[in-house]
């Protein structure tokens, strides 16, 4: 492990196992032992991790989670500017990736403090790799909004995205989320639901979104990552006028202005905006 010159602060984002403690990066124990401050999303989980690794942090251990992240960032930034070595760990995976950390990284960068990482397991990349879906281009979307209307609106934003999409989701919402995805992306869009990755009851369920939504309705447990196939390349003329009008209507119901809805549907379907406008006018007059 490279030593840091005296008086030079350093922020270390340390990846932690997403399930199997044997996946811990070799450097993790050494970083935890050498830190002046260990900022942990859950100090109880940190204690279990350090016991499993056979290491005892010599520095101060503080909590750093969603509820106190904004308030504690200033304190940790001051420590970094004072030359402290601060190691940040979250419950699983890489800090700041849908976990606490972004604010502290931004503060460190703003004050000229060096930021590095101990690369570790990632649910995003693990799910992507085992999904069986294209991996050449992908987009991580994190958690979807909890409210149904906001969730549908967020999904519509990426409905035409040709990249593979990766989401996190809670077990009690996965059935509703998959049903919403089937509605927006299409029932036959391929997906993979990755549950309890690297743990004893790991499961990867693959299939069309509609089929997965029916399976999830039976109650799914555990930590879940969803990987969804990107949209197919648009082919002009493939979408009927009545379908174009329906898509615009759905977007308008979600709060989009008609002009923006028509433009979005045109891109999604690979047709001129004028064709979508004509379809909307025809539908309005009962001619679609």
Could you please describe the fold and organization of this structure?
- The strands form 2 sheets. A 5-stranded parallel β-sheet has the order 3-2-4-1-5, with helices on both faces. Strands 6-7-10-8-9 form a 5-stranded mixed β-sheet, sandwiched between helices.
- Helices cover 41% and strands 18% of the residues.
- It has 288 residues and is α/β, with parallel strands linked by helices.
- The longest helix has 13 residues, at 69-81.
- β2 (37-40), α2 and β3 (60-63) form a beta-alpha-beta unit.
- It contains 11 helices and 10 strands.
In short:
This protein is of the alpha/beta class. It is built from 11 helices and 10 strands. The longest helix has 13 residues, at 69-81.
Q: How much is the average pLDDT?
A: 92
- What is the helical fraction, as a range of percent? 40-55%
Question: Which oligomeric state applies?
Answer: single chain
Percent of sequence in beta strands: 15-25%
Secondary structure: elements and pairs:
Elements: E1 10-14, H1 26-34, E2 37-40, H2 43-53, E3 60-63, H3 69-81, E4 85-89, H4 102-110, E5 114-118, H5 123-130, E6 138-143, H6 148-157, E7 164-169, H7 174-185, E8 190-195, E9 203-208, H8 209-216, E10 224-228, H9 241-253, H10 258-269, H11 273-284
Parallel strand pairs: 1-4, 1-5, 2-3, 2-4, 6-7
Antiparallel strand pairs: 7-10, 8-9, 8-10
Helix pairs in contact: 3-4, 6-7, 7-8, 9-10, 9-11, 10-11
């Amino acid at each position: 492990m490279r030593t840091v010159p005296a008086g030079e602060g350093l922020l270390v984002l340390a990846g932690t196992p997403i399930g199997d403690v044997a996946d811990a990066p070799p450097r993790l124990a050494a970083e935890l032992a050498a830190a002046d401050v260990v900022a942990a999303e859950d100090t109880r989980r940190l204690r279990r991790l350090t016991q499993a690794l056979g290491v005892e942090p010599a520095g101060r251990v503080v909590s750093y989670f969603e509820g106190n992240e904004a308030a504690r960032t200033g304190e940790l930034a001051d420590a970094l500017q004072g030359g402290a070595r601060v190691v940040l760990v979250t419950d699983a995976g890489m800090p700041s990736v849908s976990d606490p950390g972004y604010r502290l990284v931004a503060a460190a960068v703003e004050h000229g403090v060096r930021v590095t990482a101990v690369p570790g397991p990632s649910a995003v990349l693990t799910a992507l790799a085992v999904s069986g879906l294209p991996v050449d281009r992908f987009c991580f979307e994190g958690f979807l909004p909890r409210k149904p209307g906001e969730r549908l609106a967020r999904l519509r934003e990426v409905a035409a995205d040709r990249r593979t999409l990766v989401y996190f989701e809670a077990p009690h919402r996965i059935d509703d989320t998959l049903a919403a995805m089937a509605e927006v992306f299409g029932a036959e869009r391929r997906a993979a639901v990755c549950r309890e990755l690297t743990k004893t009851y790991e499961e990867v369920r693959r299939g069309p979104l509609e089929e997965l939504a029916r399976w999830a309705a039976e109650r799914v447990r555990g930590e879940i990552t969803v990987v969804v196939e990107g949209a197919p390349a648009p082919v002009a003329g493939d979408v009927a006028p009545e379908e174009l009008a329906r898509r615009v209507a759905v977007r308008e119901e979600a709060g989009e202005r008609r002009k923006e809805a028509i433009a979005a549907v045109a891109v999604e379907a690979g047709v001129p905006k004028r064709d979508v406008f004509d379809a909307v006018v025809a539908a309005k007059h009962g001619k679609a």
